Automatic annotation (TrEMBL):
Location(s) in or outside the cell: Secreted, Cell wall
The organism's place on the tree of life at top rank: Eukaryota
Presence of keyword Hydrolase: yes
Signal peptide extent: 1-25
Keyword Lipid biosynthesis: no
Homology family: Belongs to the glycosyl hydrolase 28 family.
Protein name: Polygalacturonase
Location, primary (coarse class): secreted
GO BP annotations listed: carbohydrate metabolic process; cell wall organization
Active-site annotation: 244
PROSITE patterns, alphabetized: POLYGALACTURONASE
Species of provenance: Quercus rubra (Northern red oak)
Length: 396
C-alpha cells in the first residue's frame, strides 16, 4: 500500500516536471492552440509567425511551445525587437518544404532577427530535407549561383542561448550567425552526409563574444567557419567529422573587410576530416588582418591537413594569382596530437608580401603511416618559434 507521504512526493515531482516543461512564471504560447497541425503535410508557417509575434509583443517572460509532432514550414522570419525575453521551445520536428519557391534563391529557412535574450531549446529536430536541393548547388562551378536556404539563421541577436537541438540535412549551412553578440551555442548536433555540398555546421560573420560548446558536427563542409569581422570566438569540446574542419576564412575577398581576432579553439576532436585547423585567404586579396588565434589540446584522427595556413586559396581554376595582402600574426598551436592522412601534417603557405608572423608551435605530435614516407612539415614565408616536442620537425 502506498503511503500518503509517498503519494504526495510523487505528485510533487510530477508537478515540478510539468512546470519545468512549460516554463514556470512564463506566459505560454502553444502553437497547437493557434491552429498548428503536426501531421507532416500542413503548412504551419503563418501560424508560427503569428504565435511568435504575439509572444514577442507581450510583456514579461514568454515561452513559444512547439509540442511533439511533425510541423511543415516554409521559410519564415521571426523578428523583434521583443518586449522582454522570449523562449522558443522545440520539442517536435520542424520539416522544410522541398518545392522550388521554398528552395531556389532563398537564403534562409528559419530566421531569428533583432532579438535580445532569446532562448532556443527543447531537444527537438530541424529537418532541412537537403537531398531535394543538393543537386541544385552549382556554386563550385558558377560564381553567380543561386542561393539555397540556411536552416537556422540568427541576425543581430544578442545575450541569447541556443541549446539542445538537432539539425539534419540542411540544404545549405545548418547555422549562420550574423552580427550577433554574446550568444552561446551548446549541446547541438549538426548532421549531413560527407558528400553534401556547402552544408557547413556553423558559419559566423561579423559577430563578437560567441561561445560554441559541446557540439557534434558531421557535415559535407566546414564544421565551423569564420568570415571577416569575427571577434572573440570561443570553440570548446567540439567533435568534428566528417567535414572540412574548423576554418578561418576565406579572407581578403573584398575591400575594407573587418579584421578577425580573438579566436580560441580548445579540447576539440577531428576525425576523418579534409582539414583540421585551417586559415585561408585568397591569393590575390584585399588587405586585412588576422591575429590572436589559439588552438590548444586538439586530437586529430586521420585528418588530411591537420594544421594548415593557405594564403593561396583557390577552390576553382578562375582565381587571380598574386600575393595575399592579409596579414596573419600571433597564431598559437599547442598540444596538437594524433594522425595525419597525408605526409605534410603541418603546412604554412604564407604570403610573400606579408609573411605570417609570430607563429608558435608547442608540443606537436602528429604521425603519418602512409606510403609517402616520414611525416613532414612545409613552410613558406612563415616566421615564429617552436617549443617542446615537434613531430614532424618544425620548419619555422
Amino acid at each position: 500500500m502506498v503511503s500518503i507521504s509517498t503519494f504526495h512526493c510523487v505528485f510533487l515531482m510530477f508537478l515540478l516536471a510539468c512546470i519545468f516543461e512549460v516554463g514556470y512564471g512564463k506566459l505560454v504560447f502553444n502553437v497547437m492552440e493557434d491552429g498548428a497541425i503536426a501531421d507532416g503535410s500542413t503548412d504551419n508557417s503563418m501560424v508560427f509567425e503569428n504565435v511568435f509575434n504575439k509572444a514577442c509583443q507581450s510583456k514579461g517572460r514568454k515561452l513559444v511551445l512547439i509540442p511533439r509532432g511533425i510541423y511543415m514550414l516554409r521559410p519564415i522570419v521571426l523578428k523583434g525587437p521583443c518586449k522582454g525575453p522570449v523562449e522558443f521551445q522545440i520539442i517536435g520536428t520542424l520539416k522544410a518544404f522541398t518545392d522550388e519557391a521554398s528552395t531556389i534563391n532563398v537564403n534562409h529557412w528559419i530566421t531569428f532577427q533583432y532579438i535580445d535574450q532569446l532562448i532556443l531549446r527543447g531537444g527537438g529536430k530541424l529537418d532541412g530535407q537537403g537531398p531535394s536541393a543538393w543537386n541544385d548547388n552549382t556554386c563550385s562551378k558558377d560564381p553567380n549561383c543561386k542561393a539555397l536556404p540556411i536552416s537556422l539563421r540568427f541576425d543581430f541577436v544578442t545575450n541569447s542561448r541556443i541549446t539542445h537541438l538537432t539539425s539534419i540535412n540542411s540544404k545549405n549551412a545548418h547555422v549562420y550567425i550574423f552580427a550577433c553578440k554574446d550568444v552561446k551555442f551548446d549541446h547541438i548536433h549538426l548532421i549531413a552526409p560527407k558528400d553534401s555540398p556547402n552544408t557547413d555546421g556553423i558559419h559566423i560573420g561579423s559577430p563578437s563574444n560567441i561561445q560554441i560548446l559541446d557540439l557534434t558536427i558531421a557535415t559535407g563542409d566546414d564544421c565551423v567557419s569564420m568570415s571577416p569581422g569575427s571577434k572573440n570566438i570561443n570553440i570548446k569540446n567540439v567533435k568534428c567529422g566528417p567535414g572540412h574542419g574548423i576554418s578561418v576564412g576565406s579572407l581578403g575577398g573584398g575591400p575594407n573587410e573587418e579584421d578577425v581576432s580573438g579566436l580560441m579553439v580548445t579540447n576539440c576532436t577531428f576525425k576523418d576530416t579534409d582539414n583540421g585547423l585551417r586559415v585561408k585567404t585568397w591569393a590575390r586579396s584585399y588587405a586585412s588582418n588576422v591575429f590572436n588565434l589559439t588552438f590548444e589540446d586538439i586530437i586529430m584522427g586521420n585528418v588530411n591537413n591537420p594544421i594548415i595556413i593557405d594564403q593561396q586559396y583557390c577552390p576553382s581554376q578562375n582565381c587571380e594569382k598574386g600575393d595575399s595582402q592579409v596579414q596573419i600574426r600571433n597564431v598559437k598551436y599547442r598540444n596538437i596530437r594524433g594522425t595525419s592522412s597525408s605526409k605534410i601534417a603541418v603546412d604554412f603557405e604564407c604570403s610573400k608580401g606579408k609573411p605570417c608572423d609570430k607563429i608558435e608551435l608547442n608540443n606537436i605530435n602528429l604521425t603519418y603511416h602512409g606510403a609517402e614516407g616520414a611525416v613532414a612539415s612545409s613552410c613558406s614565408n612563415a616566421k615564429g618559434i617552436a617549443n617542446g616536442q615537434q613531430q614532424p620537425d618544425s620548419c619555422i
